[in-house]
C-alpha cells in the first residue's frame, strides 16, 4: 500500500508495516521519507486516467525492535568507566584552562596591564561563570578605573568578597548609602562585615563622610584591633581627634600578638610542605625500587659523576630530588618499609685487594666461559628462590646463622631518604658492570673510604658475567664491612643529632629575629603615630620634638618633611615651613600630598615667581590632582585675580570632592568677592567633609563678623578655637567678636592669650590697643603700640591709631607727625581718605570732629 501527498515540491510517502493487526503500538509507527519531485520538463506526459502518478521510492522494513540490544553487565560497566574517564578528562582540561587563564589575569594585574587583564577575565567569566571569577573580573574593572562596570556585575551577589568589592564600587561612585547597606544589611543585623579590618575601615569612611563621627571612630578602632598594622585606620582616628596615645596602641602586647600570628603562619606553611613531601615519599620509594641499569644509563648527567681515579666507575644518586626545599625534605621524608625495599637487589660485595690480585694472577679456580650467544638475556628482577640462593652464597658462604651485612645495616640504621649510609645497588645479574650507585648525601670521607676499598675487574665482557662468579671471591673483608657499618651508624646518629640541634637553633634564631623586627616596626609606628596625632591635635611644638626623634633615613622622606612643614605652618612660622616644604619637594618631586599647603605658604610670603613655578611643576606631574589646581588658584589669588582663582579652586573640587581645603579656598575667594552667600555654602561643604577643619569655621566667623552678626561670629570663632586652641589668629578674631559684643574684659583676656601664644603676631597687639582706646586707657594703648612698632614698623594703621591717641592727649605735633607717616606708608584706598580727614581736623576741638573708624 502507498500513501502519497503533494506538499510544494516534495512528496511524502509512507509505508506501513507488514502485519498491521499483529503489530505492537510501538511497531505501528510509519517511516516517513521525503522524495523530491523532478522538474516538470523531465516528467513524461501525463495520462488522462491518472494525472498524478506516485513517484517510485525504495521502502525499508521497520526494525524488529526499536529498543537497543541489551549488553552484558561487564560491557555496560566498561562503557560506564569509559564515560567516567572521558568526563574526568574533560573536567581536567577545563580546570587546566581555567587555572591558566586565572594565572594570566593575575600576572597582567601585577604588571599593570589592566586592559589585558579585563579582556582575559571577560573570556574567563564567559567560559567559567563562577562567582569567584566574577570577583576577579570586578577587581580588574576597579584596577582599570571602571567602578560602574564592577557595580553592574556584582549587584545582588551574596559572598563576603563580592559584597566588599561591590561596596568599594559604590564608594567610588559616591553611592554611600548603598555601600553601607551592602556592608551592613538592615534585614540581617548579625551578618559580619566582609574582609575583616579593611571592611570595617571602609565602613568607617562611609560613616565619617555622612557625619556620624562616633560610629566612624568605632569602626576605625575595630579595624585597628583586627589589624594593628593598618596605619590608615589610625590616621583616620587622628583626623577625627579621637585617637589614643600611640604608645598605648602599638604596645608590647601588640608585638607579642603579631609574633604569635607570624609563628602560626610559618608553622602552617611548614606543615603544608611536610604534607606535600609525605605525599611524594611513596612515589620516591617506588622509583627507588624500579631503578635498573638501563634506567641508570638514562639518568641525567648531573646525577652521575665519575669517581676520581676510576674512570670506569660512576657514582649515581639513588634518591630522587623533588621540588620540596632541602631543609624540609631531608628531615620529614618517611623511611621506606620492608615491602618497599624488598624489591631492591642487594648491594654488590666489595672484594679486597688480595682477592683481586689472586684472581688476575690465575690462582683463582678456572671457570668455563659461557658463550654470549647462548646466554639468556639478564632479567631485571630475580625470582624469590634464586634471590635467596644468591644471597645465601654471597653473604653467608659458611652456612652459619650469622646475619648478612644488609640485615645488620637495616637493624642498626633504618633506611631513610636522608640517611648518610652509602647505598650501593646493582642488578642481580650484573655485579661487575662497572656501575656503582652512591647516595649523594654520603659524606665525602665515607665515599673516599669506600672508593679506596673497591677493586673491580676490567676487560671481561658483560656477556660472560654471571652470579656464579661469586664462588671465586670467598675471601671477604669482614673487618671493612664492620667498620663501614659502624661508621655509617655513628655518622647517621651524630648527624641526626646535629641536624636536630641545628634545626632548633635556626628556629630560635628565626623567632628572635622576627621578634626584633616586630619591635623595631612597632617602635617606628609609635614615633610616627604619636607625631601625627599631636599634629592633628595642633600641638605642633610637641609634634616637632617627636619627629626629631626619627632616624635620619626616615626623617628625610617626603611624608615626614611635609608633616614638619605643616606643623610650622600652623605655628605661623612661614619661613621654616617654606624651608621644609621645599626640601620635601626637591627630595620627592612627584609627591603631591601637602603641596596645597606649600602653595599657601608661598602665598603668605608673597613669593609670586616661586608659586607660579610650583604650580607649573605640579600640573606637569598630574593634571588630575586637586593639589595642583589649588596651587594654580593661589597663584592667581596672589595677583588679586579672584575670579580666575575661583575657577581653579572649583576645578580642584570637581576632581575630588572630598578635599576639604579646596572647598575652603573657594569660600575665601567668594568672601573676597563679597559674595557671602556662596562663601557660606562652600564653607559648609568643607565642614561636611571634615568637621574638624577649623579653617572653614574661621571663614564662617569672618563672614558673620563682616555682616555684623556678632553672635554668630563669636559662635563660629569659638568652635574653631576649640579645635585649634593654640592659634593666635583664632584667639585674636574671637577677641574681636567679644569686643564687638561689648565684652571688653573677655576680649582683653583673649588678646593677652593670643600675644602670649605668638609674640611675633602683630594683629593681637593692634587689637588690644584698640580695645584699650575704647576703654580710654590711652597710655597703655600707646605702650602696646610702641611694642608693636618694634615688630611691624611699616604698618600704616598703627601710626594712624597713634595719631588719634595723641590727638586725644592734646599732643598735636606728634599727632600730625604720626598721620604724616601713615600717609607716607601708602595705606589702602579705603583708609587713605580717613587718615587725610583726621589729619586736616587735628586742630579742631573734639566737639566738632565726626566719628571715624581709625
Sequence-ordered SSE layout with sheet pairings:
Blueprint: E1 3-7, E2 10-15, E3 31-36, H1 73-110, H2 114-127, H3 131-143, H4 147-154, H5 160-172, H6 176-183, H7 197-209, H8 213-226, H9 231-240, H10 246-249, H11 252-289, H12 293-297, E4 304-307, E5 310-316, H13 326-332, H14 338-341, H15 353-361, H16 384-395, H17 405-412, E6 435-437, H18 444-453, H19 478-536, H20 540-547, H21 552-555, H22 558-570, H23 574-587, H24 595-604, H25 608-621, H26 626-638, H27 642-655, H28 660-672, H29 676-689, H30 694-706, H31 710-723, H32 728-740, H33 744-757, H34 762-774, H35 778-791, H36 796-808, H37 812-824, H38 829-840
Parallel strand pairs: 5-6
Antiparallel strand pairs: 1-2, 2-3, 4-5
Structural class: mainly alpha
Strand ordering within the main sheet: 1-2-3
Which superfamily, in CATH terms, is the homologous superfamily of the domain at 93-260? Answer: Tetratricopeptide repeat domain
Mean pLDDT: 74
CATH topology-level name of the domain at 93-260: Serine Threonine Protein Phosphatase 5, Tetratricopeptide repeat
Task: Report helical residue fraction.
Answer: 55-70%
Second-tier CATH architecture of the domain at 93-260: Alpha Horseshoe
The separation of the N and C termini measures 129 Å
Radius of gyration: 48 Å
Count of helical segments? Answer: 38
**Strand residue content:** under 5%
Shape label: elongated
CATH class of the domain at 93-260: Mainly Alpha
Oligomer, anyone? single chain
Counting DSSP E segments of at least 2 residues, the number of strands comes to 6
Unreliable segments of 5+ consecutive residues: 1-21, 29-35, 40-44, 276-481
